Amino acid sequence: MAETIFDIQDVGLTVSHQTLLSHISFTVAPGEFVTITGPSGSGKSTLLLLLATLLTPTEGQIIFAGKPQQDYEKTVYRRLVSYCYQQPSLFGNTVADNLAFPFQIRQKKVNHDRMVAALAEVNLPADMLKKHITELSGGEKQRVALIRNLIFTPKVLLLDEITTGLDAVTKDTVHHVMANFNKQGITIITVTHDESELAAADRLINIVGGRMEVTA
Amino acid sequence: MNQLIVNPSALIFALALVALAFLISLKEKIGLQKDLVVGVIRAVIQLTIVGYVLTYIISVNRIWLTLLMVAIIVFNAAWNARGRARGIPHAFVISLLAITVATGVTIGLLLLAKAIAFVPSQIVPISGMIASNAMVAIGLAYRSLNGQFHDKRQELLERLALGANRYQTAINVVREAIRTGMSPTIDSAKTVGIVSLPGMMSGLIFAGVDPTKAIMYQIMVTFMLMAATSIGSTIACYLAYPQFFNANMQLRTIQH
Ligand SMILES: Nc1ncnc2c1ncn2[C@@H]1O[C@H](COP(=O)(O)OP(=O)(O)OP(=O)(O)O)[C@@H](O)[C@H]1O
Ligand SMILES: [Mg+2]
């Protein structure tokens, strides 16, 4: 097993003459819990998208588990490094459609019990499966989207402000889920503005204007 | 059978009908006057030329000339379909392939079934009908692909993020686009005879052909167009959807 799961080497991204990120360098150890913060528009989501291969750096490179990102088959990589969008949207018709998708793309039989168990983990009832996606509250949508990423356990979870807009109780549930997965050795990188999450962070990375700000 | 009396002076009078459309456009500020005039001029010139060309091709009856004419029709149809692709890369080649296969397969089957004979008077107009319907179907399918890749962008991004490949990401979009491409043909098959009396059948009856014969031909045409539009839009969509992804399996932003 590699010493580091992520080795981010002087990474930058310039899109149509606009530099969104530059000189980003840090490493992440397997099982680490990293919290990224910074002002709105500073490039936090962009950084997670780079880690997820949903964007490709124009400078530098990202080494994942000892190999450069581009050496991985994209589908394999993205199943290992699972990114949950800031303000995710559900697809298809029902909640079940969303939770069945991870099975379908792996050509696996859809496992109903596993879907129900996953819902239970984020405090959602089993009959949620039949619900139409337009009938869900914002917080319910957010949680369904989260377990879409978790139903097959990834190596790394990239979570983009997934607790924004949740009430205290639901936020707690989500924190629990994250802590549980982290305990199982899953590396978690989250983006947040949340005071309590920042206070609890083991390791904080501050992104300001597309660069890393060294914090004391 | 010479009940057909369209002579040049009758056509001049028919121009009055265009004048009516022109006046409506002008009065209602629809702004289509220029397009109407261009349309009239192009229709007259193109049809006059093609009339003489067809007469020549039919009279000399050479295989290569017939095939050349079919090739020109298919090429023009592909060019036109490309115009509706609004920036989808390789749209011309894709359309050319889709329309060629759609036309080739359909005509081939009709020839095999001896429903038509390999004579220019049959091959050329039938190819024209097939290619133009395939062209419209493919154009609609492209528009649907573009629209969906734009409107459902977030959903498609989520699918990619979950580790789906291109096909798994886009399959629903592709199916919808094929449906959209085929829907006019299916709708018109459903309403043929009760809403529309299609051009070919009306033309044959008009020209004095026995209506039962004309109707049999129309049934054949209806079936043939279903085959052609489904083949054409399926091929076009399957070749076009990967163009919406870049080499890193990310969604491209297509410049319109
Ligand atoms: N595809 C793109 N093309 C050009 N600019 C982009 C693109 N995506 C994001 N940006 C810009 O990059 C900057 C960083 O965006 P990003 O979404 O990473 O910010 P963020 O730190 O996540 O902000 P927030 O806290 O509001 O979510 C913003 O100025 C944004 O407008
Ligand atoms: Mg963001």
TrEMBL record, chain A:
Gene3D superfamilies: P-loop containing nucleotide triphosphate hydrolases. It comes from the Bacteria. Its main location: membrane. Keywords: ATP-binding, Cell inner membrane, Cell membrane, Membrane, Nucleotide-binding, Phosphate transport, Translocase, Transport. Residues 6-216 form the ABC transporter domain. InterPro entries: AAA+_ATPase (IPR003593), ABC_transporter-like_ATP-bd (IPR003439), ABC_transporter-like_CS (IPR017871), ABC_transpr_CbiO/EcfA_su (IPR015856), P-loop_NTPase (IPR027417). It is a peripheral membrane protein. The keyword Electron transport does not apply. GO terms for cellular component: plasma membrane. The keyword Oxidoreductase does not apply. It comes from Lentilactobacillus rapi. One of its GO terms (molecular function) is ATP hydrolysis activity. This is ABC transporter ATP-binding protein. It is found in: Cell membrane. Pfam families: ABC_tran. GO terms for biological process: phosphate ion transport.
UniProtKB/TrEMBL annotation, chain B:
InterPro entries: UPF0014_fam (IPR005226). Keywords: Membrane, Transmembrane, Transmembrane helix. The chain crosses the membrane at residues 6-24, 36-57, 63-79, 91-117, 123-142, 191-209, 215-241. It is found in: Membrane. The keyword Transmembrane applies. It is a multi-pass membrane protein. The keyword Transmembrane applies. Belongs to the UPF0014 family. This is Iron export ABC transporter permease subunit FetB. It comes from Lentilactobacillus rapi DSM 19907 = JCM 15042.
